[in-house]
Amino acid sequence: MPEPRLTPAAFADLFAQHAPMFRVVAASRVGLDAADDVLQRAAILALGKLDSFTPETNFRAWFSAFVRNEARNMARSERRRTGLPLDDAALGAANPPPAMTGEPDADSDRLQTCLDGLSNTHRECVLLRVLSGCSYTQIAQITGLNSATARSHVHRARSALAACMGTLAAEGAIS
Amino acid sequence: MTRADQNSRGDELSSEVLQDFLDAELTPAEAKNIRERLESDMAARRLLDGLQRVDQAIAASMAEAIRAPAPTLDAAARTLVRSERGHRSGARFSYRLRLAALSTVAAAAAVLAIVINWPTPSVRPYRPAIRIAALYSATAEDFVPDVVCDTPNKFREYTETVFGVPLVPSADAQVAMLGWNKLGYRSDDDAGGPAASVLLARGPAGEQIVAIFAQDDAVRIVDDVSPRDPLFVHEGEVAGLRIIELSPVATPFVSRQVRLSRD
């Protein structure tokens, strides 16, 4: 008997169910403003490749790969439009940190600056942990890392953010 | 004795233990030890405050937007989903309607792809009609296979692990890994930067699959490339790096970039 495949309707249901988590994955790479655009593009591509989904595997991991690839494509086309160098250093500059919502405050401003200094993987891991409340096992499934590495990334990222925000706060107090 | 116990009795509470405390990952006994320690250890208290401030700032800045309802799927995708729901509930949609929906999705994807990859007016793409065989010839130099995947499943698992995308989903595929090579640099340490790698394989229909990636976790995959198909190549030098972007003519939206050498 053939394996039941993922139907477009089932895909749409899963997409809606896990959208906040996918938005975190996208936002960690292109910022919140562009995250939904990335999800749209990833959904269109995934709908065309539903046969590549293996039913017994993890949907979040499968679709996150599309989101991540589309985020890269968007960052790259953004670099092309803005004429920034195709360079890893420029990638960070071209990737706006997650856009803030609500009233800006000092901690939020510092956070934005400090998030920008993290690698994509560190940013993704810490945001999945803090915003989505993902376990290390879930983060590992989504990112393709193992659990221990995911845990290490979360710890390092959060420590780096704390140190960075502390430094910026001290500099602000002095000036 | 757990790490938390050791830490609580040692000189300093580590950031790692404090994060586990913050995330409620410790046992009640371990957490109690940490709480007692925090009452007298001001350095640890400051460290914990800094970590808490990070979580609070992230939540305050982004939580509301992240939890917003799912974005609405594009019209083309919705058409496809609706037709599928109708089919599932017993309504019959004609083959022509479904074909139209699929065509709409494909057209939308193609338009999207063209928009995404359309070069800016100031950039004239360089498009020599190089052939994939020439690329393979270039990568064959100093060929050192790191991995041999002699079955479709091994290759599928491998590409899924490395690239996040299963390149050969069919169990009937005849897979042969042709080459795995690092270009440009002798090693990361020598070059002081990431190396680009190229992986060549054959897909289910005998087509060549080319996966090009750098070690910065940015994976670029070009698949379904016939050895006779020319590639679009955009080449240029940016910040001392020679940049080559490849995309097969048939599917320009999978254009990817690869850094081949540092001049």
Q: In sequence order, what are the helices and strands of chain B, one letter per element?
A: HHHHHHHHEHEEEEEE
Instruction: Report the count of strand segments of chain B.
Output: 7
Adjacency order of strands in the biggest sheet of chain B: 1-2-3-4
**Largest beta-sheet characterization of chain B:** 4 strands, antiparallel
Low-confidence stretches of chain B: 83-98, 112-148, 168-204, 212-263
The overall average pLDDT of chain B, rounded, is: 52
Kindly report the average pLDDT value of chain A: 77
Q: What does this entry look like structurally?
A:
The complex is a heterodimer of chains A (175) and B (263). By secondary structure, chain A is mostly helical. In chain A, 73% of the residues lie in helices and 0% in strands. Chain A has helices at residues 8-30, 32-47, 59-82, 88-94, 106-116, 120-130, 136-143, 147-174. With 263 residues, chain B is an alpha+beta fold. Chain B contains 9 helices and 7 strands. Chain B has helices at 3-9, 15-22, 28-40, 42-66, 75-88, 95-117, 132-139, 152-163, 188-191; strands at 177-183, 196-202, 208-214, 219-225, 231-238, 241-248, 256-262. In chain B, a hairpin with a 5-residue loop joins strand 2 (196-202) and strand 3 (208-214). The longest helix of chain B has 25 residues, at 42-66. Residues 83-98, 112-148, 168-204 and 212-263 of chain B have low confidence and may be disordered. At the A-B interface, helix 1, helix 2, helix 3, helix 5 and helix 6 of A face helix 2, helix 4, helix 5 and helix 6 of B.
Describe the structure concisely.
With 175 residues, chain A is mainly alpha-helical. Chain A is 73% helix and 0% strand. Chain A is built from 8 helices and no strands.
Summary tags:
heterodimer, A: 175 residues, mainly alpha, 8 helices, 73% helix, B: 263 residues, alpha+beta, four-stranded antiparallel sheet, disordered C terminus
